[in-house]
Specification:
This protein has four helices and no strands. The protein is mostly helical and 108 residues long.
Length: 108
């Protein structure tokens, strides 16, 4: 199992991928609302999780990552179900999902 400080470092990297996806959404005026809503929800959640990450409570950290990873599953599902999505946005969603999935697997 990763130590708390390693989880914090990896979460910072994950959070960057979420922020990148949020920025791409903001730049893409034609981003579908469904994916925009998923990413905005994840961005809000990741900001709230920062307090959990600073707590050094590994159980809460794992739960927070699991929750965000489930949200990224939904974002990926939504992005794949849309008839058209900007390529940069689809790529950002894929990177975000991969980063969260990797972290989740490292924690279990």
């Amino acid at each position: 199992m990763l130590q708390a400080n390693e989880i914090q470092q990896r979460f910072t990297q994950v959070q960057q991928t979420i922020q990148e996806a949020e920025q791409v959404c903001q730049r893409e005026g034609d981003a579908p609302n469904e994916i925009r809503d998923c990413i905005q929800k994840m961005a809000r959640e990741s900001r709230q999780v920062q307090d959990v990450m600073r707590s050094n409570d590994q159980q809460r950290m794992v739960e927070a990552v699991d929750n965000l990873e489930s949200m990224s599953d939904e974002a990926k599902r939504v992005s794949r179900s849309l008839p058209s999505i900007p390529a940069e946005l689809e790529s950002a969603v894929t990177r975000m999902h991969a980063a969260l999935s990797t972290l989740k697997h490292q924690l279990h």
